[in-house]
Design goal:
elongated; 55% helix; 459 residues; two-stranded antiparallel sheet; four-stranded antiparallel β-sheet; alpha+beta; 6 strands
């Protein structure tokens, strides 16, 4: 009996020791993985402060102050040396596929943006897929193929109406403040109800003095607004013709013989161009600055393809930890099946946006393969959040918000491949009326995928 009890005791002890060894072995895998992640985090000196740094350096105040400083430097350079650049920034957008990738992430984020209601999400989405392709001259078919699989948000409230009517000429129905009358057809049916007490529609210039910003003008008021603006534009055109009288236009260097009639062009003589100007306010400037920064960061990730491939080769080498079963394999970037690391990174970003990967896992995956460059997209959700917020302003239905008017002016001008000096002058004059005392910026797209940005003064 004593021997039998002793054997049972020894058996229990051995069983407990075996379970302890198995438990220790499993915990050693967890500890090894945590130690490896902490080691990578210790090397990632930029990732620690990137969130606070981005929050500071990409705020609207910092961006405007930075271009003001650069503008003042160029002004002093002009006085001292007699020559200085006419622009403060020169952005290059060489890879249009990255532009499409950024747009896809923007559309995907706004579809899940809980801080905006359904109507706002629809307006922001429509602004994104209209402005970006128009500005960068990207085919609508390419954009449609890129965002086709992104599900649109379902309506939150049955009382919400549809977005403003898109007109065939690129314009849109009259904006309203209450979201209930959003196209011109409703204005035709209810035009008697939208008149003021004196029987006339509310003038566009009197919106700050009479009526509220939530009221909806009728068709007659729209006609009066257009007539007033046409009269102003006509006056500016006449002044421009007088100022430009007798001034020769640039001569085509391809012509070997100059004719006298070539020197008699007036200011309204059309000429072909390879540039398009967007006169913008602070909202549009900050939007374009954030978009360019996000493009630049994704471009760095795409350019680091060989670096990520080399990291995979290093991880696949024989290691004692792998033989002991302590090496935890990360399957996210393994087995690419012909994909690039950049495309798999975009998939990881999409999973992060959709909430399928938490922030800690997301940063760990990026850090493991892009240790030197991965920190640049840690805060990608903050960028997308800011872009959506600015997109809400750019697609506002408030009649007093002139950002939409600046964009519609650009859309109308962007359609034509030719322009005139009068048209260029009128665009600036009209932008000055919209911006008034605020800062005015010129964002100019050039055919060679260049964007020149300069600060100017409306007065």
């Amino acid at each position: 009996m004593r021997n039998g009890g002793l054997l049972r005791l020894v058996s229990r002890l051995l069983s407990s020791c075996q379970r302890a060894n198995i438990l220790q072995r499993e915990w050693e895998k967890v500890w090894a993985f945590q130690t490896y992640n902490m080691y990578l985090r210790s090397l990632d000196h930029q990732g620690i402060q990137v969130k606070q740094s981005d929050k500071k350096h990409f705020s609207a105040k910092h961006l405007v102050d930075a271009i003001k400083t650069k503008h003042e430097e160029h002004r002093r350079q002009q006085k001292t040396t007699g020559s200085a650049p006419k622009y403060q920034y020169l952005w290059q957008f060489e890879d249009k596929s990255i532009i499409v990738d950024v747009l896809r992430l923007m559309v995907m984020y706004v579809a899940n943006a809980s801080q905006h209601n359904n109507l706002e999400r629809h307006r922001i989405r429509e602004f994104f897929i209209k402005f970006i392709p128009t500005f960068f001259d990207i085919s609508e078919d390419i954009i449609a193929d890129s965002i086709r699989d992104i599900e649109r948000a379902t309506p939150d409230d049955d009382s919400e109406d549809v977005a403003p009517l898109e007109l065939p000429n690129g314009g849109r129905g009259r904006r309203t403040g209450n979201g209930k009358k959003t196209d011109l057809r409703r204005g035709v049916l209810d035009k008697n109800q939208n008149r003021n007490g004196n029987g006339k529609g509310r003038s566009h210039k009197d919106d700050s003095a009479t009526g509220s910003k939530e009221s909806t003008p009728d068709v007659d008021s729209v006609g009066e607004d257009d007539a007033g603006e046409m009269a102003d534009d006509q006056a500016v055109t006449e002044v421009a013709n007088g100022n430009w009288a007798g001034v020769a236009t640039p001569v085509d260097t391809r012509q070997s013989v100059l004719h006298t009639e070539d020197l008699d062009f007036s200011a309204d003589q059309p000429f072909s161009r390879d540039y398009y100007k967007l006169w913008s306010n602070q909202t549009i400037f900050v939007f374009m600055s954030l978009f360019q920064t996000l493009y630049d960061r994704l471009k760095d990730i795409k350019a680091s393809e060989e670096e990520a491939r080399g990291e995979t080769i290093r991880l696949n080498r024989d290691k004692p930890a792998k033989d002991l079963g302590l090496f935890r394999r990360d399957d996210y970037f393994f087995d690419l099946n012909g994909e690039t690391y950049y495309s798999r990174t975009l998939q990881l970003v999409e999973d992060f946006i959709n909430g399928e990967v938490d922030e800690t896992q997301y940063q760990a995956f990026i850090r493991q393969y892009y240790l030197m460059k991965g920190w640049r997209i840690y805060t990608i959700q903050d960028f997308l959040k800011h872009l959506c917020r600015l997109g809400a302003v750019c697609s506002s239905v408030d009649q007093k918000e002139k950002t939409v008017d600046l964009l519609e002016q650009f859309y109308r001008n962007r359609i034509s491949e030719e322009t005139t000096y009068n048209a260029e002058i009128n665009m600036r004059k009209q932008a000055e009326k919209y911006i008034k005392d605020g800062e005015m910026f010129l964002i100019q797209w050039v055919e060679h995928d260049l964007v020149a940005v300069g600060l100017t003064s409306p007065h």
